Amino acid sequence: MPRANRHFLPDLVWHITHRCHEREFLLRFHQDRKRWRRWLYEARKRYGLCILDYIVTSNHVHLLVRDRGQGEIPRSMQLIAGRTGQAFNHRKGRKGAFWEDRYHATAVQTGDHLARCLTYIDLNMVRAGAVVHPGEWEFGGYREIQSPPARYRIIDLQALMHALEIDSMDELRRQHRIRVEDSLATGTQERDDRWTRSLAVGSQPFVREVQRKMGLDAQARTITVDSGDACLREPAAAYRVHFAEEKWPSRPLRDAK
Q1: Does the residue 17 lie in any domain?
Q2: Distance CA 159, CA 153 (A)
Q3: Are strands 13-19 and 60-66 parallel, antiparallel or unpaired?
Q4: In contact, 106 and 195? CB cutoff 8 Å
């Protein structure tokens, strides 16, 4: 089976998506979502993973990170995915893969494109029908950005402000909140696969530069432009699993053994 894209270039922001094996709802249990988040925090401590946003759903995760060029992203993903899957299988007496193939990574231009990707991630569980506002979902970055905890912070708020070209925490929270509220008010939170199936999203010069840096592997890829946004597209055969948000199970289980 073709492998999902995992290009990494230093100093770029990457939107990473990773789905459970066969789209199973293996993260529907509260303790497994909590465990995934705990290992995400551990990856920040161990490897210096620069985390800008995240969300854990019932069957996949979204993670927004900035590559510092130290190999921290693949090491972090191996740690988080491996420990989460191992713990679940041990508890359930289960064998086999926990995750679907390999995770996919999309380069996102900083500034406005990043702000829109951030909102897209935060609204994931609203699209799934689990909550009506992202602030209601415990396992996502929206709460942490709006009300940073005193301890065990996961998101690098200074790095997020820099990437969004914002110079104060108050302004970060204000713009972040307004974008989410506007999207909820206008009903524009539908799925957009450019954030999950592209190699890069941004302005045309940004996408062309990413394509150039990726080398021969990206030269045959198609760049599409829509309303000024450019996307370096992945061939359909190269990534067969799309990330349409699954509807939340009608009877979600919490803390089940």
Answers
A1: yes
A2: 13
A3: antiparallel
A4: yes
Q: DSSP E strands: which ranges in the chain?
A: 13-19, 50-56, 60-66, 104-108, 198-202, 223-226, 229-233
pLDDT tens, 135-173? Answer: 999 999 999 999 999 899 999 999 999 999 999 999 999
Q: Which residues pair with 106 in a beta bridge?
A: 15
C-beta of residue 239 within 8 angstroms of C-beta of residue 4 = yes
Q: Name beta bridge partners: 200.
A: 107, 232
Residue 55 β-bridge partners: 62, 140
CATH code (residue 206):
3.30.70.1290
Q: How far apart are the first and last CA of the chain?
A: 32
Tell whether 118 is covered by a domain: yes
pLDDT digits (tens, 9 = 90+) for 87-103: 999 999 999 999 987 89
Domain count, the chain: 1
Q: Compute the residue count for the chain.
A: 257
**Which distant-in-sequence residues (6+ apart) come within 8 Å of 248 by Cβ?**
58, 125, 128, 129, 130
